[in-house]
Amino acid sequence: MRFEISKVLDAIEGRVCTDPSLARAVLDLAEVIRYQDLDGGRPANLLRLGMVIDALARDLTEDNVPVYAIVHRALLSDADLTSNERMVVRRWADDGLVEVLDNPGDRMLEVADLLGLPVLSRARFDGLRGRFPWTVEQPGRVLAPVPGAGGPVFIAHVGGGNVPVAGAPSATGVKLLARQWRCPEQGCALFGGGGGGGAFADLARVERAPAGQPPPTLRGGVPTCPRHGTRLGDAGPRPRTEVLAVRIGGLVRRRFVLTEGQPVLVGRAPEQQGGIVLGQWLNDEARRWISRGHVRFECRVGEVIVTDVSTNGSGIRPGGSMAEPDRIALKPQQSRVLAPGDLVELYPGVQIGRADELPSGAAFTPNSVMAEAPTMAMRLPRP
Ligand SMILES: [Zn+2]
């Protein structure tokens, strides 16, 4: 059973990130792990994070939806967690997958404000409406995870809906995310990179791409490292990015970030590091058709270029049209610039396009990060 819990925690690890292009909601880990009423179990349980992430994926009808977690430093030594859970959270902290802070203060709301993300919390923010008016003015922007029939459900603080609503990133957020930042602290997991890890830089588990840096915090108007409280250096313009999504059988399975100058290979099992692996979602026929590396995406001067590198070829669905006469063949070694709305089709039902142009079309149940959870952890109350 220990082994199974580890597997669940590994699955959850794939759903926490501080990448502004990928995170879909912000939460406070110390709060979420204490939602004892979700399962009636022990006072603190890291698996509750998985339950809340699952609920978010269900509501957004999209698989592999990551959250931006703020973590109070005290959590790393919280005696209510198991030693295994504390170790996992420390690993997430070291890898910059979560943001660990000595004093989180309003950071959760600041991140949500800068990035335009919804907040998942039961806390009331009435006193902060001056600084963050959207907390009380925008329906669906703040939601409380509460016990429901099949796991947690969300209730909006304002408007009574239950689907998280994203806002626009604030003007300050747009400005901050146009630059790369450098923390003077050695090996900073949030704003390091470029040898920040010193002698062991090559051993770092995760290489943080500058394009995936979290938003700095502002102290007196100065961009500051939220972890170290140090003033950040401006390291030049941030590389341009485009967020693409993979839709298989009508359901968006995952998103990925395409950064200028860094091509990404997508296929059944691409050998390139950072390649997007589709194999686990494909049936036998699709697996036979789709090459290990099937298409390559590049972001160049703001355009997305796709090149077929497969054996069998691909197709373009212009403007997302599913009418067969509209489909344009993309033969092996052919390239094409993706026009607005265009989808690349590797095999019928296996499509890739810009994330904001590729809604989940089908009523599917996303894969649970809790699928491997031992039944004991899943003792959900049945109202
Ligand atoms: Zn730092």
Automatic annotation (TrEMBL):
<feature type="domain" description="FHA">
    <location>
        <begin position="264"/>
        <end position="316"/>
    </location>
</feature>
<keyword id="KW-0597">Phosphoprotein</keyword>
<dbReference type="InterPro" id="IPR000253">
    <property type="entry name" value="FHA_dom"/>
</dbReference>
<protein>
    <submittedName>
        <fullName>FHA domain-containing protein</fullName>
    </submittedName>
</protein>
<dbReference type="InterPro" id="IPR008984">
    <property type="entry name" value="SMAD_FHA_dom_sf"/>
</dbReference>
